[in-house]
Every structure is written in C-alpha cells, then in structure tokens.
Amino acid sequence: MSEQVTLDQPEDTAPEPAKDGASGAGAGGGETLLEVSGLQKYFPIHGGFIVKRRVGDVRAVDGVDFSIAAGESLGMVGESGCGKSTTGRLVTRLLEPTGGKITYAGQDITHRSRKELAPIRSEIQMIFQDPYASLNPRQTVGSIVSAPMEINDINPSGGREKRVRELLEIVGLNPEHYNRFPHEFSGGQRQRIGVARALALDPKLIVADEPVSALDVSIQAQVVNLLQRVQKELGIAFLFIAHDLAIVRHFSQRIAVMYLGKIVEIGDRASIYERPRHPYTHALLSAAPEADPDDDGRERIRLAGDVPSPINPPSGCRFRTRCWKAQDKCATEEPPLVQIGGNVAGHLTACHFPEEPTITARKEDIVLDPALAAIEEAAEETP
Amino acid sequence: MTSPSQAATNADSLTPEPAAGSGGPDAKGTPALAGRTPRQLAWLRFKRDRVGIICAIVVVFFILVAAAAPLISALYGKNAYDLYGQDDGLLNSYGLPIAPNGGISGQHWFGIEPQLGRDVFMLLVYGIRTSLLIALAVTVLAVGVGVLFGLTQGYLGGRTDYFMGRFSDFMLSFPQQLFFIAFSPVAISLFVGVGDPESWWVRPLVLIGVQFLLGWMSIGRLVRAQVLSLREREFVEAARISGASSWRIIRKELLPNIWSTILVQSTLMLPVFVTAEAGLSFLGVGILPPTPDWGLMFQTGATFYKSDITFMFFPGIAMVIFVVAFNLLGDSVRDALDPKTLR
Ligand SMILES: Nc1ncnc2c1ncn2[C@@H]1O[C@H](COP(=O)(O)OP(=O)(O)OP(=O)(O)O)[C@@H](O)[C@H]1O
Ligand code: SF4
Ligand SMILES: [Mg+2]
Fold first, then answer.
1. Has keyword Transmembrane (chain B) (predicted)?
2. Is the interface score ipTM higher than 0.90?
3. Assigned domain for B137 exists
4. Residue A261: CB within 6 Å of ligand 1?
5. Pairing state between β A73-77 and A237-242
C-alpha cells in the first residue's frame, strides 16, 4: 500500500447503501457529524478503611476537543494508557462523561440515558480491539450479527437472516457460516464478524478501537483494507484509534495525537506526517515501524520511560517530563491547542516551543532513555 | 488481498451482490471443524469420560427408582407400611428377625426391619423417594434464588453489590447444623398449634425451608463472580451500544455463559442436601416415622447395629454409592463443559 491510494472525501463516489432509511443529516457530506468539546472523564479512586472516601481521580481524558465530518475518518494515536479507549467509549456513550459536551448530528448527547439515546443508537457503532472478547462464545454468528437489528426492532426486506448473509458476504465471510460459533473462526475472521455486526444497522459513525492490534501482522492489512472499503463505499465516518502512526496513515484523512488525556496535535494527514510541530508527534513518527531503517534522511528520536500517571499529571505541559525542549515556562503554563504560525488551517499544536515543521535528520539523534544513557555513559568511561 | 483501488472500480461490491465478497480475503481460513455447537462439543467430551458415563447411569438409576417407587411396589408385591414381620411371625421376642442376615429371603430381598417388621427394600425405595424429593426442592429453590441474587449483585455492582454481599456473608456465618436443629422445631411450631395434629406436609416444608434459607449463598457468590467478569467483556459492551436493555443483556449475553456453572453447582449441591436431610431426620428434627425416609433408616439401624448390621448395610451402601456417583458426575460435567479441556 502506498500513496497512490486515493482517500479523498468519499461522498462523491460513495453509492447510497441499499438499505432504506440511510439518508439523514450526514448525507450532505462535509458537515460536522460529531463534535466533542472539553470532554473529560475522571475515574474516582476510592480509599480509606471502612468508610470509603474519594481520594483522587484517574484523569483518563482531560479536556479533549475534536470533530468528525460525515464520511470522514479521524485517526487517534498515542501511547498505551493515554485515554484513547476512554475517549472512544465516551463517544459511544458506554461511559458517562465527567465534563464537556458531545454533540452528534446537532443533538447534545452528553448525558442522555439509554432510552433517550435509542434514536441514534443505530448510527454510532463500535469495533473492538479483542476479537476473542467481543463475540459472545455462546451465540452463533447469525444471532451475533442480527442482534443489533433485533434490539432496534428493524426488519429489513427479505428478513434478518438474509440481511445477515449479505453482511457476511460484504465483510468477506462465507454466508454459510451463519450457524457457526465464534470458536470456529480465526482472529481475523472474528474481527470480520465484528465488522459485520457494526454494519448491521447502517451506522454513520464507527468507533474502531485498535481494531487490528490483536491480529497477526499478515492479517492486519486485510482487515484494514476491509475497513477502508467500508469507509469509502458506504461513506461511514470513523474514529480510528491506534497506538502508532503507521496504521492510521493509510486510513485517516485527519490525525489527532493524544498524550496523557489531552490532544497535543491535530491536523490533516499530510500536515501531521510531513510537517509535525509537536515534539511528541516527532517522537511518534520516528518510532513508526514504517520508517525505513536504511533511510538516513529521517530524524531519529528514541523516547523511553513511561507515560506519567494520569492520577497526578505534570503541571503545565504534560509532556515536559519527557520533552527535550522543555523550559521553565512549560512547567508553569499549559500550552493551548492553537494554530501555530506556518501551519495550514486546521493544524493545531499545543506546544510553547514547537519543532521545525520537518522530519529530516538532525545533526544528533535524540535519545531520551535514562537507562540507555547510563549504559552509554558507563561504556565511555571504561576504555 | 483486495486492494482498495480494485474495490473502488467495483464500487457496487458492498451492496449485496454475491460477486465480490465471498471469495474474499481470507476465505482460505475456513475451519475444518464442522459446525459444532458448544453443547455438542461438551457432549462429545463427556461421552469420552467413562467414569462420568457410569456415574450418570447410577444417578439416573436412583432417580428412576425414586420416581417409579409405586410401580416397584406393585411389581414387588409389598409396600413400605405393612408390618410383615409381626403379621407373618418373622420376628423373635426381642423384635429381631429370626432368619439370619436380617431376615433376607426370597420374600424380603433386603430383609425386614427390626421391631416393626416392615420390608427393608420397600423402605429404602420410598426413603430414597422422600429424601430425593426434598433435596430436589431445596436445590431448585436455592439455585433459583442464588442465581437471581448473584446476577443482580454482579450486574448492578457498586453499593448494591456491597450490601447484598454483606447480607450473603451474614447468612453464610450461621452455624448450619446448629441452626437446623435449633430452628426446625421453632418453624414447625409456627405451623402447628399446641395440641393440634401435625399435617403431613409440615415437616417436609420446614425441612425444605430451613435448608434453602442457608443453602443459596454459595451458588450466588459463584454467579456474582462470573457476572462481574462477564459484564466487562466487550460483547456486553457491543450489546449495550446497540441499545440492549439490562434484561436482554442478562438473558442473552450473561445467562448463556453461566449455565455451565449453574449445572455443575447444582449437581454438587443436590447430594449435600440429600445427606443434610438424612442427617436431620436421623437426629429427630426431620421426617418422623412412620414416613419412610433415608435418614430415619439410619436411626433405626443405629439402634440395632450391635445385634444385626444388615439393617444399616443397605441404606448405608446406597447412600455412599449415591453421593460418590453424584459428586463424580459433577466433576465430569464440569470437565466436559470447560472449553480448556478441549482436545
Ligand atoms: N474503568 C476504569 N476505572 C479506572 N481507571 C480506568 C478505567 N478505564 C481506564 N482507566 C484508566 O484510564 C487511563 C486511560 O485508559 P485507556 O484505556 O483509555 O487508555 P488507552 O489509550 O486506550 O490505552 P491502550 O492503548 O493501552 O488501550 C489509564 O490510566 C487507565 O488505567
Ligand atoms: S510545551 Fe514545552 S514541554 Fe511541552 S512539548 Fe512543548 S516544549 Fe515540550
Ligand atoms: Mg485502549
């Protein structure tokens, strides 16, 4: 796969899905489908003996803003534990937000109850990371895929079974597997079943939480291709969560980089990949496995150590404990997510001292690994 | 690998048209395993377990005996109430069977009861019937309530879980045997006024009641633990995203996954209740004579075991076989249902 894969806005080519009721607010294209502002999720930590008190919070998501247009795919990347899954679960309203606002197709769904959510339930679906935990081992493929239709009382013409068989075909499975159980399928096939389930209600937005991370590398590409086809041809908007930039590169028109509960940089794909400004984005890009190891034209940044605890995040800029450009200002003042001079519109960065918008090699590699630094130091001392 | 550009030329491939999809990307991975349900797999595993099969046969035999007691009585030509020993003069002046080995004969296969002279075979058959029926009722009640309790506790979680959990701890902390012995007479007096004759159903009802009262917690805890882990699973979240109600999630997503626990636990609970019922009757707070009962047979047997062990022998052997078979069956069922033993 390379750059010739065209990923323009899909709505000009996308055929209307065959099913009825598919037209709605998003069909116009380009208009905002999902809008998230100041979204927060704090998980309380209880402590104390006998009398349980709230002793602190895990600030999993702490003020996140982004929007997704109809038919668009937003990639969300960041290290483990930075709050990507929590963001996804907030958007699908599996979790109740602590603060902020989620607007879907013009309606505020931030604190809607299950019953109030019913009308839009069919429009937001999710694909999960673990294909083994996401399918009920006691249900057949048929009942798994038809469950969303059953729950929402949708009766497609020709019956639900016919629709399920169609869906199985769409995701590249044999429709004859209708009566089989999940344990009879491989990881990749299971993930396809998960995709079929997500498509069952003709959604407008799919949150895909690391949908290929648990799969074999050889299978990953197939599933990503399937999702890409789905996105382009059915015009479904995606929030595609991944932990490195390599996978979303081919999938998403826009990329958001998350660090410790906040978005540190967001922008168009080309802008993020070619002209990144935030030091963390630079580090992620240079760590992407796709970077050709023999290619000396690219910068090398080794970022080690752990993400600080979200219970007690660093003051000011949260990245400052691992940033090579950190100065006093970074500890006292939180950098706002703004458009920095020299960036194209829509490319926002949260950094006081942004990097140059280039990914070419530096004079010196940046190594930020305390352990490695110590070893190298010791090696230099002993001749 | 279908490249996206290729798919794009064939833009209609996502609308239901058999052309594109089926031959798709990893059709090669079609599993060789011919579509077997988890239940069929469990049955296959169980069939290979010889001990399990034998135990199942034994257990079914006991259940059949209990169910068909009147039929057996008709075929055998005796019943559990007639005092054959006294009527036919088979007892000596001490009330012990004259014939050796407890009076075993072609007429009375397992001998006759000392003193009253009832037929031991018939006593045992009807005794098994009484004990098994009571134990079955307790099991059904305890499993039903325990599962409901555990489901609610695990599914709702949080504060509800905490308080329900403390309640079940409280119930568990009762000294069971002592409670049964001390409380049964109290419970009986609730139903029977002073000086009134006791109706036949009072004793069984009280036995069922007190045992159930202290019997549902263990399965409740197991179910709670399972539900707690299951409800965090992604397939439950998937159902929730589609808008499933709690009731549907419990019914369709959770219950099918805890059936095996319920089944195994029930097969392990039943023999416990059978022995408990026998124990209570033995101690005199359960079923009263002349109702035939497994536990009462031990009571009589204990009185006469010095002069004649035969009367203790048959109910004892039957009880041992029953309990061992039921427990081994429970283990086999668990092994069969556990996907980890899949081979
Ligand atoms: N239910 C919860 N209760 C308490 N803390 C939670 C809960 N869910 C997530 N967290 C915490 O919130 C933080 C963010 O978690 P999240 O799962 O969103 O990370 P992630 O970016 O998806 O990471 P990964 O790449 O490992 O999936 C973590 O520190 C995690 O421990
Ligand atoms: S604000 Fe400071 S610490 Fe944060 S990324 Fe920019 S330079 Fe580094
Ligand atoms: Mg995650």
1. yes
2. no
3. yes
4. no
5. parallel
One pLDDT digit (tens) per residue for chain B, 343 residues? 444 444 333 333 444 433 333 333 444 444 444 556 777 878 888 888 888 899 999 999 999 998 888 888 888 877 777 777 777 777 777 777 777 777 777 777 777 877 777 888 888 889 888 889 999 999 999 999 999 999 999 998 888 889 999 999 999 898 888 888 888 888 888 887 777 777 778 888 888 988 899 889 999 999 999 999 998 889 999 999 998 998 999 999 999 889 888 988 898 898 899 888 888 888 888 887 778 888 888 888 877 777 777 788 888 889 899 999 988 998 888 888 876 544 3
| Residue B263, domain member (yes or no) | yes
DSSP code, position B251: I
Other C-beta atoms within 10 Å of B87: how many?
A: 9
Q: Are strands A348-349 and A366-368 parallel, antiparallel or unpaired?
A: unpaired
Instruction: Find out whether the peptide bond into B290 is cis, omega within 30 degrees of 0.
Output: yes
Structural domain span for residue B223:
41-337
Would you say A37 and A90 are in contact if contact means Cβ atoms under 8 Å apart? no
Residue B308 lies in a domain: yes
| From B241, B252, B256, residue closest to A125, measured CB to CB | B241
Q: Would you say the CB of residue A128 lies under 6 angstroms from ligand 2?
A: no
Interface contact A233-B14, CB threshold 8 A: yes
Which of these CATH numbers, 3.40.50.300, 2.30.30.240, 3.40.50.720, 3.90.180.10, describes A2-44+56-259?
3.40.50.300
Q: Is the CB of residue B170 less than 8 Å from the CB of residue B253?
A: no
Q: What residue ranges do the domains of chain A occupy? A: 2-44+56-259, 277-381
The structural domain count of chain B equals 1
Q: Give the list of residues 6+ apart from residue A86 with CB closer than 8 angstroms, or none.
A: A41, A60, A61, A95
Using left for φ > 0, alpha for ψ between -120 and 50, and beta otherwise, residue B259 falls in alpha
Length of chain A: 383
Backbone φ and ψ of B334, nearest 5°: -60, -45
Measured CA to CA, the distance from residue B221 to residue A343 in angstroms comes to: 59
SS3 A254: strand
Cβ-contact A345, A339 below 8 angstroms: yes
Give the distance from CA A287 to its chain's centroid.
18
Both tokens assigned to A299 = 């910068």
Establish if B177 belongs to a structural domain: yes
Question: Nearest chain A Cα to B239, which residue?
Answer: A148
pTM of this prediction? Answer: 0.78
Atom of ligand 1 at shortest distance to CA of A261?
14
Instruction: Give the DSSP H or E segment for B329.
Output: helix B310-337
As a whole number of angstroms, the distance between CA A86 and CA B303 comes to: 70
> Which CATH number fits the domain that encloses residue B196?
1.10.3720.10
